[in-house]
Design brief:
The protein is an all-alpha fold and 279 residues long. Helix content is 76%, strand content 0%.
Length: 279
């Protein structure tokens, strides 16, 4: 295929992909609509959450079914990196936010799931699971095996999504039973995640040869040489990481600072009132 034609690759209208997305969408619609009165009496329908959830499904289809998938699977490591990071940093977060707290409670706090979730969603576990999977997946023999097997490739992306939901849970959890980590833990968590990815970043960006030979054999898209594509993939990994870990780090820091400052002011006022009363 000529390099200039690559960007016109067809959308993937895979019945399994489309059927799976529609099944999840229908299950969400039923749970948040007709079944809501039975699952969580009195809870209102949250249109904003629903829009976020359906938006996550739409973006998932773009990642898996648009020409981006062909670019990633056949031609460009950088396109593949965009796929992975969209799943891990955008879709996963949208899914957590898009499911109402009461529905998360139904899914995760029943007597069969809760003992597992209570362990699996601890920060040290989510950090370790995501970081290990992220690193192992970029081992050349594993990575290239997925590029040559479409089913394995889709399974890999589902695992990426699952481990990413785990990753973001200590930061975004909407339920008290499986709460967000304390402020300092969340700050340390978001600070060290990009550090844990440095070996993968360095191994891709600064490697003297093409890490994944399958891309060296592919027609060139957008005029990128295999080495330029590889360096771009590493740069995308680092920029996405700095953005999607750095922005919440900053927000959480100022939220924590504001809370602590408010507590300090309250304590000072209480002491003053106590001193005035004593006088």
């Amino acid at each position: 295929m000529p390099a200039n034609d690559v960007i016109y690759a067809a959308w993937q209208l895979d019945p399994v992909l489309i059927g799976g997305i529609l099944t999840v969408a229908l299950a969400y619609a039923l749970a948040s609509g007709p079944l809501r009165a039975r699952l969580a009496p009195g809870e209102p329908y949250r249109a904003g959450a629903a829009a976020t959830f359906y938006g996550a499904l739409a973006l998932f289809f773009v990642v898996e079914g648009s020409p981006l998938h062909d670019l990633a699977e056949r031609y460009l490591l950088s396109a593949h990196m965009v796929q992975h990071l969209l799943l891990s940093y955008v879709v996963a977060r949208m899914l957590i936010v898009g499911v109402p707290a009461w529905l998360w409670r139904v899914l995760l706090t029943n007597r069969r799931v809760f003992p597992v979730a209570r362990v699996a969603l601890r920060p040290v576990v989510t950090f370790t699971v995501f970081s290990l999977f992220f690193a192992l997946w970029h081992v050349p023999v594993i990575y290239q095996a997925a590029l040559m097997d479409a089913t394995l490739h889709h399974v890999e992306h589902l695992v990426f999504l699952l481990t990413a939901v785990m990753l973001w849970w200590p930061v975004l959890s909407p339920i008290e039973e499986l709460p967000r980590a304390p402020y300092l833990v969340r700050l340390a968590y978001l600070f060290t995640l990009p550090i844990a990815q440095l070996p993968v970043f360095a191994g891709i960006t600064f490697h003297p040869d093409v890490v994944y030979p399958i891309y060296a054999l592919a027609p060139r898209a957008f005029g990128l040489s295999p080495m330029a594509d590889q360096a771009l993939a590493g740069a995308i990994m680092k920029v996405f990481g700095l953005l999607f870990f750095g922005v919440p780090f900053t927000r959480i820091f100022f939220e924590w600072y504001t809370l602590e400052n408010s507590r300090r002011v309250t304590q000072i006022d209480m002491r003053r009132q106590a001193g005035g009363t004593a006088t």
